[in-house]
From TrEMBL:
Protein name: Retropepsin-like aspartic endopeptidase domain-containing protein
Pfam families: Zn_protease
Source species of the chain: Microcella putealis
Annotated Retropepsin-like aspartic endopeptidase domain residues: 10-143
Length: 159
């Protein structure tokens, strides 16, 4: 995308987003203009080949400390990158392209897959995704509203 976006949407420093490709209807994300790329906390990540193309299969647990509503996702590997975390730790990560829906807008983002157990958010939305028409107001939160209550829990009783 080149040039300025047609319109901008104001977002808070944290928002509830959805990942239609997963499908994950709700996951809490931190919006971080200091981070270049977006990242997602994943479990049981494994690479495989399909028709000569590298793919990755991983689980997403959208709720902190819960396996409720967990989904298994398969996507083509877009890239591999060396990423330095905010703590200074560098690691090579798999990058996938994902659709992110936030504040009634949809964007495509490069998302690195990692372990974010030490972080307070399952997802981080970085500046490359945010420059698709978002301005972050660091004094505000959840401008798109909160996840609906009660949360639909598809996996209840299966574990």
């Amino acid at each position: 995308m080149s040039g300025a976006p047609h319109s901008t949407t104001i977002a808070g420093w944290r928002e509830w987003v959805s990942l239609p490709d997963a499908p994950v209807p709700w996951i809490k994300a931190k919006l971080d203009t200091g981070a270049r790329s977006s990242s997602l906390h994943v479990f049981d990540c494994e690479e495989f080949t399909r028709d000569g193309v590298d793919w990755v299969r991983f689980d997403v647990h959208p709720w902190q400390e819960s396996r409720d509503d967990a989904v298994t996702v398969e996507l083509p590997v877009h890239d591999r990158r060396r990423v330095r975390s905010s703590s200074g730790h560098a690691e090579e990560r798999i990058v996938v392209l994902m659709t992110i829906r936030m504040l009634d807008r949809t964007m495509t983002a490069e998302v690195t897959l990692t372990n974010r157990d030490a972080m307070g958010f399952r997802m981080l939305v970085g500046r490359h995704a945010l420059k698709q028409g978002f301005v972050v107001d660091s004094s505000r939160s959840y401008l798109g509203g909160r996840a609906p209550k009660p949360v639909r829990r598809r996996n209840r009783g299966k574990e």
